[in-house]
C-alpha cells in the first residue's frame, strides 16, 4: 500500500469514527420509521391504483355483458319482426347477423375485461402481502423504538449516577463541594498567614511592653510592693 | 441512506398516517372496503355550514353501484350512506312546495317509510380540490324515520335545482381497509 493510500485510509477511518460518534440511535430509528412509512404510503398508492383498475374492469365487464344481452335481444326482435311480416326476411337476417357480430365482439370484450380483472385481483393480492409486511415491520420498529427510548433513559441516568459516585465529573455536585472545601482551607491558611505577618511587624519596644504588661509574674511583684508600702505606712501611724 | 440524500428536495409529507387511515382522511382516488367489496372515492366534497363547522361527503363507486358517504366528525363520528333518488319519485310536488313555502315539508313518505324533518341547514359546498372561489350555496333538509336509522335528505341548489338522497345511518366499523390514492 503506498503512502497516499495509507493516508487516505487514516482520513477515512477518522471520518467514519467522527460520524459514528454523531449518530443518535433514537433519532436515526425515528428517521428509519419515517422512511418506512413513506415506502408504505407509496405501496398503498400503487395498491389503490390497481384496486381502482379492478373496480373499473368490473364496471366494463358488466357493461359488455349488458351489451351482449342487448344485441341478442335485438337479433331476436328482428327475427320476430320478419316472422310477423313486419319486415323482409333478408333485411331481418342481415341486421340480425350484424347484431350477432356485435354481440360476439362484446363477448370478447367481456372476456378480456374479465381476464383483466383476474389479473388485477392477483396483483392486489401480491401488493397486499407487501403492505402487510411493511406494516408489520413498522409496528415492530415502533415497539423497538419504545424499548430503545427506555434503555437510553436508564443508561443516561445510570451514567450520571456513576459519574457522581466516581467523582470524575468536574461539573458534578461532589466536585463543586470539594472545590468549596479547598477554597475554605485556602481562606483559613490565608488568615493564618496574615496573622503571622501582623505579629512580625511589631517593634521591639512594643514586644517588651507587651511582655511586661502581660506577664503574670510582674503583676504579682507590683501587687507585693504595693502591699509592703501600705504596711509600712500603717506602722508609722501606730508609732 | 446516502450522504447526498440529505440535499434532495424534501417531499411533501402526507396529511394522514399511512399506518392508521381514518374515514376523515378519505379523498378522491382513495379505496375502502364496505359490504365485502372495494369502493373507489370518485369525488370528495367539503361543506361549510358556518362557525367553523365543516363536513365531508364522498361519492363511492364499486364498478356497478354508486353511494354517497357523508362524514361528520365534529361531535363524534356521524355517518350516513345514501343513494340518489329523483325528487319527483319522492314527491312530485316537492319542488313547488319548497319554492312556495321557502322551506321543506315536516314529513315525507318514501317507499312506505315516513321521514320526519330533523334539521334545516344553509351552507356552502365545493369539491375539495377546487379553488376557494368555487363554493356553491345550498340549503339542506335532513329527515329521519322514527327509528332514526333511515335517513333522507333534500338539497336545494340555486332557485329551482333539487337533489334527493335516501339511505341509512352507518357505523364506522362497517368501513375498513382504507388505502390512499393519488388524491
Report on the structure:
- The complex is a heterodimer of chains A (239) and B (183).
- Chain A has 239 residues and is mostly helical.
- Helices cover 92% and strands 0% of the residues of chain A.
- In chain A, helix 2 packs antiparallel against helix 3.
- The termini of chain A are far apart.
- Chain B has 183 residues and is mainly beta.
- Helix content of chain B is 7%, strand content 49%.
- In chain B, a hairpin with a 5-residue loop joins strand 4 and strand 5.
- The longest helix of chain B is centred in the middle third of the chain and has 8 residues.
- Chain B is globular.
- At the A-B interface, helix 2 and helix 3 of A face strand 2 of B.
Question: What secondary-structure arrangement, pairings included, does this model have?
Answer:
The complex is a heterodimer of chains A (239) and B (183).
Chain A (H helix, E strand, L loop, with lengths): L2 H20 L2 H60 L4 H78 L6 H28 L3 H11 L1 H23 L1
Chain B lengths: L30 E4 L2 E12 L5 E8 L4 E7 L5 E8 L1 H4 L3 H8 L5 E4 L2 E15 L8 E9 L5 E8 L3 E10 L4 E5 L4
Antiparallel strand pairs in B: 1-2, 1-11, 2-3, 2-7, 3-4, 4-5, 5-10, 6-7, 7-8, 8-9, 9-10
Number of strands of chain B: 11
Question: Strand fraction band of chain B?
Answer: over 45%
Tell me about the largest β-sheet of chain A.
Answer: none
What would the average pLDDT of chain B be, to the nearest integer?
A: 90
**Backbone shape of chain A:** rod-shaped
Give Rg of chain B in angstroms.
Answer: 19 Å
Give the N-terminus to C-terminus distance of chain A in angstroms.
129 Å
> Structural class per helix/strand content of chain B?
mainly beta
> How much helicity do the residues of chain A have?
over 70%
Any idea what the radius of gyration of chain A is? 56 Å
Helix/strand order of chain B: EEEEEHHEEEEEE
Task: Sketch the topology of chain A as an H/E string, one letter per element.
Answer: HHHHHH
Strand adjacency order, main sheet of chain B: 2-3-4-5-10-9-8-7
Strand residues, percent of chain A: under 5%
Low-pLDDT regions of chain B: none
Assign an overall shape of chain B. globular
**Main sheet record of chain B:** 8 strands, antiparallel, barrel
Instruction: Determine the N-to-C terminus distance of chain B.
Output: 28 Å
Mean pLDDT of chain A: 83
How helix-rich are the residues of chain B, as a percent range? under 10%
Number of strands of chain A: 0
Pfam families (chain B): DUF4178 (PF13785)
InterPro entries (chain B): DUF4178
Protein name (chain B): DUF4178 domain-containing protein
Domain DUF4178 (chain B): 29-169
